[in-house]
Specification:
- By secondary structure, this protein is an alpha/beta fold.
- The chain has a single domain, classed as NagB/RpiA/CoA transferase-like (Rossmann fold), CATH 3.40.50.10420.
- Helices cover 39% and strands 20% of the residues.
- The protein has a six-stranded parallel β-sheet with strand order 1-10-7-4-2-3.
- The two termini are 20 Å apart.
């Protein structure tokens, strides 16, 4: 069980992040648990909606991916698609694109790094709505610290998870490499949404993803 002081701190910090998101034309929500995060997500996604996702672990960890696969939704599972390129391209015309975030600042700026770049490109443009599931472990003070987290925490763990031969997979920290296996190909900083109502962020009082 989470210490009540950490719980209260996360709740207060989440409200600060949500205000930052609102100032950037994005919508934020706070979930006290994974179960509450799942309930919020399912309220946002109407039955019959077309939905797909990148490789975000956080979406799986709150049970959202499984709920969509088994529920009344048109869920495109990229991992099971015979033609993965076609599945990635189809994401741009979906009602919802689901993602985690590598990091988010206290004032609502999100930082994401991608290898194939299908995830960051779909976040930037294409799907009608983008829904982020973000654990409070991803909150950083500013863009500089968010970038450092993305490169030195998220990227090495993901490189290890995918069995890639990168310097960070061996050392545990970013070596600013140009390895053929690098997953740090594209960096996306989402500081504002031109389209109101497109980007939604559920902040979860838990440690999710990497």
């Amino acid at each position: 069980m989470m210490d009540k002081n950490i719980f209260h701190r996360n709740e207060l910090l989440a409200q600060k992040v949500i205000k930052g998101l609102e100032s950037r034309n994005m919508t934020g929500y706070y979930a006290a648990s994974r179960e509450e995060a799942l309930a919020i997500a399912l309220r946002l996604i109407p039955e019959g909606a077309s939905v797909t996702m990148g490789g975000g672990m956080s979406v799986h960890e709150i049970g959202l991916a499984e709920a969509l696969k088994s529920g009344p939704y048109r869920f495109l599972d990229r991992d099971r698609a015979e033609d993965k390129r076609a599945a990635m391209l189809a994401a741009y015309d979906m009602d919802f694109f689901l993602s985690g975030a590598n990091a988010i600042t206290e004032d609502g700026v999100m930082v994401n790094i991608d290898g194939n770049s299908n995830r960051v490109s779909a976040i930037a443009q294409g799907p009608k709505k983008v829904l982020f599931i973000v654990g409070m472990n991803k909150v950083c003070k500013d863009v500089d610290s968010a970038m450092k987290r993305a490169r030195n925490v998220a990227a090495p763990i993901n490189a290890q998870r995918f069995g890639l031969s990168t310097p960070c997979a061996k050392t545990g920290s970013c070596m600013d490499c140009k390895s053929p296996d690098t997953i740090c190909c594209q960096f996306l900083i989402t500081r504002f949404s031109r389209h109101a109502g497109r980007i939604h962020v559920i902040l979860v009082n838990d440690s999710l993803g990497f």
